[in-house]
Amino acid sequence: MYDFSNKRALVTGGSRGIGKEVVKQLTNCGAHVIALSKTQENLEALKAEIPSVETICVDISDWKKTEEALRKIGTIDLLVNNAGIADYAKTGEVTEEIYDKLVATNLKSAINVSQIITKRLKDEKKPGSIVNVSSAASLVYMFNISYASVKAALDKITKTMAVELGPYKIRINSINPTVVDTDMTKVIFENPEVEAQLKAMIPLAEFCKTEDVANAVLFLLSDKARMINGVILPIDGGNSAK
């Protein structure tokens, strides 16, 4: 168990999937957790399950509305940029609409929220820790181009922010899981051929559970990882090692 007592954490995309598991584990470790989601119904279900969680409903792809929603949030010690959408378009199938939505939701939101949170940390001369939820698709071929390219850009943002914010004692790391069994990836499990192809690429021959990802997130957020900064951490059963 990690001790996050007296820490305030913000988890984007925190009402389901990986984000929900991170919210649960942070709460169990004593943090005051704020979960952000664009779906009020999901936030209400989360609140019923974890009464102590604070919720914010906003579409994180909207830069200005997100700024407004976080204006009075106060100082955040721990940030998990988890909100994201998936897309499985290959070369020749990508549309401008799809790509713009991916960039706004998976990439620009991480920049926007990180800037808001780190400005307050710098102003108050407080340390902090950020984890960006990226993907193994940024490291290896996983049957798409649009999603993979956006996640690769997120990894670069992680490294750049780690260098620029390190002197302020603010650490930024990425985790890069392979397929995780969530609602967002159900399209993969509905296609046995694609599921088998993806699993065959993984030496451990398993996909991730949300707990596998959340365990890594909590470690990187914690003081036990105090010298880990700018890391791109695969959680992929060895796929990127090949």
Please render the helix and strand layout as text:
Layout: E1 8-12, H1 17-28, E2 32-37, H2 40-49, E3 54-57, H3 63-70, E4 78-81, H4 96-123, E5 128-133, H5 146-165, E6 170-177, H6 186-189, H7 192-200, H8 210-221, E7 232-235
Parallel strand pairs: 1-2, 1-4, 2-3, 4-5, 5-6, 6-7
Helix pairs in contact: 1-8, 3-4, 4-5
Overview of this protein structure:
The protein is of the alpha/beta class and 242 residues long. The protein contains 8 helices and 7 strands; from the N terminus they run E-H-E-H-E-H-E-H-E-H-E-H-H-H-E. A 7-stranded parallel β-sheet has the order 3-2-1-4-5-6-7, sandwiched between helices. Helix 1 crosses helix 8, helix 3 runs parallel beside helix 4 and helix 4 runs parallel beside helix 5. The longest helix has 28 residues. The protein is globular. The model has no long low-confidence stretch (mean pLDDT 95).
For the structure shown, list the relevant keywords.
242 residues, alpha/beta, seven-stranded parallel beta sheet, 7 strands
